[in-house]
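Work Package 4 report. The design task specified in the project plan requires that, given a folded chain encoded as structure tokens, an amino acid be chosen for each position. We show below one input record used in the internal validation round.
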């Protein structure tokens, strides 16, 4: 039996099953302080019985270097109380099982890559919600580099109708997350993107910023697909606007042509937790 945790800044999604595509039980708990949240997660998972491995896809930043004594830690997150938190170590010890650990967006990217049936040789997963994050899978493996991608913190060109908004990222101001995340949209217009009128310029502005990130991914690492998930991405018509604007930005230049696609998640809201179970499966075989 595999266990998985999609550890988000707002909630922890927990699941168990004999394989990533067979979830037999799931549970959701609010993300509170680390001691309370991790203990509650461990208690529920232990109560399912027979766990052989655990996979965790976590909000970040996180330490992914297996040679580091801080592997499995959430590191310098601005979320109160969670900086320098040993998530993998605590849960691995509490449950007595091997642990697979990665970012929540890398986990979702792995799951979407598997769900593509190898239609895509390479894939990026962008989540647009309370924050903006991105995971990359190239040749079937998640990209880590010296740490892991932080695609929410690239600097897009400012939209001509959005020059006065300073952005809300505490580190960068008007990075992608500072301009296009859910809180940035509310800070600018007083409501969520889905609540804005259909003819509100905010729809085109946000689509432009996300499309710039998609074009950057197509142009820099030549992924075939960018999968866009997260709460903001559920706004009707947004993904279609992003896809159209990405094509405009490309202007027919990139050699991948129509093989570059911007799509919704094949797995819907389950990409993250299925990816966490895939991390557990890999840990069990290691």
């Amino acid at each position: 039996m595999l266990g998985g945790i999609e550890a988000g800044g707002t909630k922890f999604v927990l699941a168990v099953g004999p394989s990533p595509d067979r979830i037999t039980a799931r549970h959701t708990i609010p993300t509170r302080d680390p001691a309370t949240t991790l203990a509650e997660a461990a208690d529920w998972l232990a109560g399912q019985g027979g766990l052989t491995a655990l996979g965790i896809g976590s909000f970040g930043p996180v330490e992914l270097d297996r040679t580091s004594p801080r592997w499995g830690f959430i590191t310098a997150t601005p979320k109160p109380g969670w900086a320098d938190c040993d998530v993998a170590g605590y849960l691995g010890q509490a449950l007595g099982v091997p642990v697979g650990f990665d970012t929540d967006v890398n986990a979702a990217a792995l799951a979407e890559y598997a769900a593509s049936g190898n239609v895509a040789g390479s894939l990026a997963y962008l989540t647009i919600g309370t924050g903006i994050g991105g995971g990359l899978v190239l040749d079937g493996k998640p990209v880590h580099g010296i740490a892991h991608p932080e695609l929410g913190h690239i600097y897009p060109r400012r939209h001509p109708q959005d020059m006065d908004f300073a952005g809300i990222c505490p580190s960068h101001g008007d990075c992608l997350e500072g301009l296009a995340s859910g809180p940035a949209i509310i800070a600018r217009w007083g409501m969520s993107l889905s609540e804005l009128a259909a003819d509100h310029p905010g729809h085109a502005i946000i689509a432009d910023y996300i499309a710039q990130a998609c074009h950057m991914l197509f142009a820099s690492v030549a992924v075939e697909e960018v999968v866009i998930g997260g709460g903001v991405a559920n706004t009707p018509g947004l993904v279609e606007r992003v896809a159209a604007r990405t094509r405009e930005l490309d202007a027919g230049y990139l050699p991948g042509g129509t093989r570059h696609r911007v799509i919704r998640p094949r797995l819907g809201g389950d990409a993250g937790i299925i990816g966490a179970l895939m991390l557990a499966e890999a840990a069990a075989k290691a």
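The chain has two domains: 2-103+269-285, 117-265. Validation will be extended to a larger panel in the next phase.
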